[in-house]
Amino acid sequence: MLKISEVESRTQRRLVLEGRLIAPWVAELRAAWNRAKVDLDGRELVIDIGHVMVISQEAENALLEMMTEGARFRCSGVLTRHLLQQLKRRNRKQPAPSDLSSQEGQI
Hints:
Layout: E1 2-8, E2 12-21, H1 25-36, E3 44-55, H2 57-68, E4 72-74, H3 78-93, H4 97-102
Parallel strand pairs: 2-3, 3-4
Antiparallel strand pairs: 1-2
Helix pairs in contact: 1-2, 2-3
């Protein structure tokens, strides 16, 4: 089970996740993310994974997509901090969309 709470402040909108971030809850996270991105009015969007106990590979991929789109993260604990560091490394290794189009047809 996954609980997603939205916390609003003057400077940020935060999605607080609690529980297990696995299928089918990854789809719920993506839907909450898409709703939360609307009408930010200059606030930052933060995903708080400090109370997540389990994160599946599918969830890691979703978090990476959100990171690529500019999400900021908040966490506590060694494992979630390590996971975010790994995702940041993966994010840096991904080629920019313009790089992908220039490589089409190359083997």
